[in-house]
Automatic annotation (TrEMBL):
Domain V-SNARE coiled-coil homology: 30-90
Subcellular location, record wording: Endomembrane system
Ranges that cross the membrane: 88-108
This protein's UniProt keywords: Coiled coil, Membrane, Protein transport, Transmembrane, Transmembrane helix, Transport
A Gene Ontology term for the protein's cellular component: endomembrane system
Entry-linked CDD domains: R-SNARE_SEC22
Membrane association type: Single-pass type IV membrane protein
GO biological process entries: protein transport
Name of the protein: V-SNARE coiled-coil homology domain-containing protein
């Protein structure tokens, strides 16, 4: 256990003060402190992982909403284009019909006479 603890302390970037607290592994107090701190770190890491998973789920929801919004905006743009076309036809169709009828009458008058 002492070798594992020494290896753990060598690998972790701890300050010198913290290393000195845990170097004497024979005392029960230091081992209890180490276990308490490891438990706290475990709780913090568990909480962080849960938060990351929650953020991931929220990102998935935002992505789905964005996809729906994109498709609905395309539909809206198509419908707006159709409505503009219909409004243009309603506005200019009577004028085109009148011009067509007058032209037809002039053409027919020239053919008959």
């Amino acid at each position: 256990m002492e070798v594992k603890l020494k290896l753990l302390l060598d690998l972790m970037p701890l300050s010198n003060l913290t290393k000195k607290l845990y170097q004497d592994t024979r005392t029960q107090r230091n081992v209890a402190k180490l276990n308490d701190e490891l438990y706290e770190v475990h709780q913090i890491m568990t909480r962080n992982v849960q938060e990351v998973l929650g953020v991931g789920e929220k990102l998935d929801q935002v992505s789905q909403m964005s996809s729906r919004l994109t498709s609905e905006s395309r539909i809206y743009a198509d419908k707006a284009r159709d409505l503009n076309r219909q409004a243009l036809i309603r506005k200019w169709a009577p004028v085109a019909i009148v011009i067509g009828v007058v032209s037809l009458l002039f053409w027919a008058k020239n053919k008959i006479w």
